[in-house]
Write a structure and sequence with these properties.
With 656 residues, the chain is an alpha/beta fold. It is 31% helix and 23% strand. It contains 22 helices and 34 strands. α3 (47-56) crosses α4 and α6 packs across α10. The longest helix is centred in the first third of the chain and has 17 residues, at 127-143.
Amino acid sequence: MSDTRAGTAAGQAELLWRPDPDRVAATRMAAFRSWLHETKGLEFGDYPSLWEWSTSDLEGFWGAIAEFFEVEFHTPPERVLPEAVMPGARWFPGATLNYAEHALRRDTDEVAVVFHREDGESSRLTYAQLRRRVAAVRAGFRSLGVGRGDRVVALVPNSPEALIAFLAAASLGATWSSCSPDFGARAIADRFAQISPTVLVAVDGYRYNGRGFDVRPTVEQLREQIPSLAATVLVDYLGGTLPGTVAWDSLLTDFADAPLEFEPVPFDHPLWVLYSSGTTGLPKGIVQGHGGILLEHLKMLALHSDLGPGDRFFWFTTTGWMMWNFLVSGLLVGTTVVLFDGSPAHPDLSVLWRLAARERVTYFGTSAPYIQSCLKEGLEPGAEHDLAELRVVGSTGAPLTPEGFRWISSAVGPVQIASVSGGTDLCTAFVAASPDLPVWLGELSCRALGAAVEAYSEAGEPVVEEVGELVLTKPMPSMPVHFWGDEDGSRLHEAYFDTFPGVWRHGDWIRITDRGSAVIYGRSDSTLNRGGVRMGTSEFYRVVEGVEGVEDSLVIDTSGAGQADGELLCFVVLADGVTLESLEPALKSALRTELSPRHVPNRFVVVDEIPRTLNGKKCEVPVKKILAGTPAEKAVSRDALRNPTSLAPFLALAEH
């Protein structure tokens, strides 16, 4: 990929933030380096040298992470990594442990969880209280037939109940999977049904943007569509009931005296199932293991984010985004996790900044589009709220624009800007920030420790100061154990290793700078990415083309395609006599109810034909390139199209 935007040479980039030397000396990153010197005889004078070691001696680095953070193995590992191959790396073979045991190591009166809902409801739990509730729900799950290897799925908002249910499932060795309650029944069933869960935990409804939404009809549909369910546990979130379900509160009372225990499981035992976007069919179930997530999140949260006891960690997320899983892992390092459920713009865009001030948030995480909205609104949180405790503003979900960087620096204050990039696939960021590194305008500060990130040319060679494919050349512990139901590993191989054998191709464009920082230019595939939530086109088409009067459709997300404020565009071919004006309300309603509000496009555009390849595939990536300004002859070979004249309206739109 040639790059006309990467004009900032190493010596020209603008420095926005420089770490204070005294503060750096007190960070956990500095403590880790000192520990390596004292216990291993390893000395690293700066971050780049530490990163080089972490990606060249994988066994030494990941073994050191486990030792430094005092990971409790019930059975010790035979070794760290017998063979550094991809796919198929086996980490810490022979070891047994439990993620939940590490999240609940503390049994103190320190606050573990702070919760706020948009309507004013709030609560907090100490570590001791959290342990007692997890113990009760764990016993309740066991009474409902949940055991090691079973699946517990949840249709829940970002609430304490979600966190408690997850930890209870993990403590049993059961596998967790969650969806946000604003997902439609079809989107949820496409995910949950394929993993055959034993128990469904669901809320009766949720609140968003000042309104209450009843999800009990969706719960009823799921109970009918998932035959493996032995029980449904209903959380009274809005005051509703549902016959034939087990009340959440009854688990807390009936099993209030249950002991808290943890099932030792192998290092790669499934902790949770996350999901791909579903671009090429049903969403792929991405299975990640107890040990891999434990080590990766300890590294990212303690070292890269410098979080620990006394800190307060917030990220605006739903349970349908991997950032929820990342957020709740704050418990692993003893920090207080701050949960918020509701709209980030109700009653106004300042609601999250007010929350940050009220709860003395240390690390405030959000999405790049939210930052962009605050910028457009002209907010000045630093002047309007007391953010004295705020140390870091994190951003992910999409590339943060240079204007977004400047806004944080000027309107929020002299905080570290942690623009990070990674993915659901590993449930982490592997291009990130570090408390001992400066922040440059528009750049991600570093490649994360243990993450052998490179920019590859089309020939599969590493390049610097050029835009290339983001790849990982060596394995990481949080890489998927497997895809659900992918018995021979063929789908996993096709997803990541088809392009460069033995090398993970992630699907983003990246430029590594001479300083070791990076710039992300967005997705190199056709996945829709709105507000950090990845959405698949196949899910979208099933709904749109199911509306009577729509004959064909194409959806394009123009964010990350040369447009800072991209749009979600839906091109439709309509039946004879049907007008867009008559159909648009039904299209919006179907997408909102069957998938989610995020699936509703900014615009619908009527075209005569959808461009298709000779074998009938929709030309999503070529059209996205055209809309970004790529000449048609470079975006697609007309000889490869069944209907080359169909490109005309897209070319015309690009010119405007």
